[in-house]
Design brief:
alpha/beta, single chain, about 15% strand, about 40% helix, two-stranded antiparallel sheet, 6-stranded parallel sheet, 10 strands, about 240 residues
Length: about 240
Amino acid sequence: PAAGARWLRPFGAAAVDPGQGGAPLLMSPAMTARVTRNLLDNIDLMVCDMAGTTVQEGGLVYQTLQNSMREFGLQVSNDDMHPWHGAKKEAVIEHFARRAQIPEHELQDKVTKIGDAFLNAIDEAYFDEAATISHIDAGLFGYFQQLQRAGIKIALDTGYPQNIQQGLVKRLGFDKIVDGYISSYEVAEGRPYPYMVHRLMERLRIESVKRVCKVGDSVRDVEEGLNAGCGLVVGVLSGADSAEA
């Protein structure tokens, strides 16, 4: 894992501090609380990823993107997809289109067609009445409220296009609790670039990036936080990547 980040997992699994090395440690909820008790003492803003971090969707976004590329003739394996968890979707499509040696004059059209197919498929998968997406944990909103009572603002960032993000925010009730949210489509580059974190700081009037905590389930989330200069970067093991990633 990236240096300077912490990876946390609930009871029954491992909690790893990559700075220490060695085997993962099994920790109870009480021990986890003791170890992490003072982590947020100097934090004014927590920026959380969505899929796999605050939204439980079973990796559907990556499966859908992979299937969309395959439908247009791009050969993309599960292992191929793994390093691209958390990336802006057009960047992923362009990478694999270039790898397939799509001619330059056809490239943008290919990226657009696959991107449109992905958006249609993910819209149906997420917002169909039978969709099973939910909060990553039943106690998530209670935790957010606890942080807000302590003076910490909560924001969401994502590689989803804005319409998908806004749909999820409303469907899952995040609009009633978070202080802000942003899509990578609102800035020049998505993760691992730091622009979403810095834009949220501007919107929410956060003076120092050292008082920002970035939380996410992918290596790109961790890299985003480190590149932004966040005072605390936390990797959670509820989604895309493992502590060994």
